[in-house]
From TrEMBL:
GO terms for cellular component: acrosomal membrane; sperm flagellum. The keyword Oxidoreductase does not apply. Belongs to the glycosyl hydrolase 22 family. The gene is SPACA3. GO terms for molecular function: lysozyme activity. This is Sperm acrosome membrane-associated protein 3. It is a single-pass type II membrane protein. SMART domains: LYZ1. Keywords: Disulfide bond. The keyword Disulfide bond applies. One of its GO terms (biological process) is fusion of sperm to egg plasma membrane involved in single fertilization.
Length: 112
């Protein structure tokens, strides 16, 4: 069984790999005009502010802030998302590639 201390990094590493391939500058343009931004591909429809006015901006930041290689703001935003009712289920990559899987291989050899 994975300890709680190891669980959070496992989740973030798996999610980052399957959403952006660990690319902090990744931007994916959706058909509805929104964008998925940064290493966790956080969407502009709800979570961050892009050029579109009147979006909820739950994370209280510009989407461009999510493209910074310093992941502090990105992790804070992702943590806000996981506290929402849908939690990690917000990410399709989590549902298809990480949820219910043994993620320990992602951090083999790491000391926590």
């Amino acid at each position: 069984m994975v300890s709680a201390l190891r669980e959070a990094p496992l989740i973030r590493v798996c999610l980052a790999y399957f959403t952006s391939g660990f690319n902090t500058a990744a931007v994916d343009h959706e058909a509805d005009g929104s964008t998925n931004n940064g290493i966790f591909q956080i969407n502009s429809r709800r979570w961050c502010r892009n050029l579109t006015p009147n979006v909820p901006n739950v994370c209280q930041m510009y989407c461009s802030d999510l493209l910074n290689p310093n992941l502090k703001d990105t992790v804070i935003c992702a943590m806000k998302i996981t506290q929402e009712p849908q939690g990690l289920g917000y990410w399709e990559a989590w549902r298809h590639h990480c949820q219910g899987k043994d993620l320990t291989e992602w951090v083999d050899g790491c000391d926590f």
